[in-house]
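Notes to self, Histidine phosphatase family protein:
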Amino acid sequence: GQGIQGELAKLKRGAVDDIHRYAQPNASYSVFELINGRCTALKWGIATHLRHLD
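result:
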């Protein structure tokens, strides 16, 4: 969510000013791994069951 967007902005740019650049579309998700200061995206997908909620 927005917490991950903020962390990505800080890691990439050193500030959260560009948080919008790291926003994901609605109903998407990411799985990250952080080892020895290196952040790797392991998986990205769309939670299709959430796209149809009212």
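- Residues 2-50 form one domain.
- The two ends are 19 Å apart (CA to CA).
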